[in-house]
Amino acid sequence: MIQRAKTEIAQxxxxxTGRPESEIYGFxxxxxxxxxxxxxxxxxxxxxxxxxxxxELANELANELQGKxxxxxxxxxxxxxxxxxxxxxxxxNWLWQSLKDPxxxxxxxxxxxxQTVVVDFSSPNVAKPMHVGxxxxxxxxxxxxxxxxxxxxxxxxxxxxxxxxTQFGKLAWAYQQWHxxxxxxxxxxxxxxQLYVRFHDEAEKNPELEKFGAETFLKLEKxxxxxxxxxxxxxxxxxxxxxxxxxILGTKHDVVLGESFYNDRQxxxxxxxxxxxxxxxxxxxQVVFFDEKEKMPPCLIKKSDGASIYATRDLAAAIYRHDVQxxxxxxxxxxxxxxxxxxxxxxxxxxxxYDWAKNCHHIVFGQYRFKDGKMSTRKGKVVLxxxxxxxxxxxxxxxxxxxxxxxxxxxxxxxxxxxxxxIFNDLINDRVKNVDFxxxxxxxxxGDSGPYVQYTNVRCKSxxxxxxxxxxxxxxxxxxxxxxxxxxxxxxQFGHVVDVAYRQFKPNVLAQYLLELxxxxxxxxxxxxxxxxxxAVEASRIALVDATSRVLTAGLGLLNxxxxxxx
Length: 567
Description:
The protein is built from 21 helices and 13 strands. The protein is globular. The protein folds into 3 domains: 2-86, 2-Layer Sandwich (Gyrase A, domain 2), CATH 3.30.1360; 116-369, Rossmann fold; 385-558, Isoleucyl-tRNA Synthetase, Domain 1, CATH 1.10.730. The longest helix has 25 residues, at 225-249. It has helices at residues 2-17, 21-27, 44-50, 54-65, 88-100, 132-150, 166-178, 188-205, 208-221, 225-249, 266-275, 310-323, 339-351, 385-403, 410-427, 439-442, 450-467, 482-492, 494-503, 508-527, 535-558, and strands spanning 39-42, 72-78, 81-86, 116-120, 154-159, 255-256, 279-282, 285-288, 299-302, 329-333, 360-363, 368-369, 435-436. It is an alpha/beta fold. The strands form 4 sheets. The protein has a 5-stranded parallel β-sheet, sandwiched between helices. A 3-stranded antiparallel β-sheet has the order 1-3-2.
């Protein structure tokens, strides 16, 4: 879309200045103030090379280029910048060419064509209910997965479930001792959580229970049939519940590979580390030490009792993803509290001599903040994933009953709006920051919310239904009002925004754009009559409404938010 204008300008500037076209293209940007033009190019680097004052060089280039670039209405020098204002005809032609291209979906490109991206996201610990930390990992990861696909990549979404480790020895031991005291037929996940909390409560009084848990995990690792049966039941009942939540959110994983999947690959990791001389003994354990300047504690590979550790499994998983799944990029959507762990894992991969480790990225995110502070599963204080979802559905259903009680497909639409509310409420924030969850903001159809974006799209669809005819394929007039041109230019930026959102691994870039697009549409809608205008005016504005709806639908889809037909 807007890339077409940038290409025209970059080519002409290259011929005039001798600077590489790719370099000029990369520096062309949308000014923060709309009145400054549609695109701007800073001449500071060029002025430095030529030993010229930036403002003087900008004036000279503006005069030289004036009237010589197709689609550019005017060029203004402002300090050290060249500000380009595009013609209304060019803007809408570029937009309609993009909209009519049947080969490339809106917002998509082929920049990662031929590459494979593995996205590790959600990753709950089985035998426990998913909490809002897993909710963040799920929706951020799904959005990044969608954005990667929009770049033309082959994407493998992996649910790297926590189904191994000492905690399962503790749970299995607790199950053997106390399971008769709990009703596993009614709510198995809740019963397992109560067992987990009880084990730690009892262990505080009797520390010997920790030894029993560790011994039971060793039995699990060695294949004890009774312990493995208990473990398998924990995994199975967990996913019955998890899949219900994934279905509401439309979450898609291509493979579910738990930590246990890498058990028989851990020895290979240890052998590779030994061959490189990286493994050293420390207090009976096997570790990898780092250089002092890296300021990291040693990476624990095998504990003193011989039990495996999750760093070893993550090393095995990374090697598997590169060697078997053929990943060019490996993305880990995991909370910020695991930053040290991934720094250690990625550094160990580098020490093993794997150049591809530079393409492993930890996509960090902050926490949800609630009145009770940081969540702790061990203490039994946890804000559940399912509570967040079902409360949203309940609140939206109540709103529909009050405002539109006769709405058809009420239950489906309530789920769609609820999903939009909780997903957008998260993704509008920079993922690295903590999020203060605000229900009033999340479900508000008039504020900076998912339901507001969904409602704007519903309004577009309603106008199109009232029009009742095929949307014109060719515009019969130039969209020349200020509101029309502002909306057209906003629509043109969609592809660029999607590209930036992926390169930064930040879905909030796209979410913020959708809010701004809705604002531009609202301004256009209130200032320009659409239906009932003379033929050419009505037809052109209907086409603009259709373009807005298509971009909103595509943008919401990339954030994994549904687009209801009515609200």
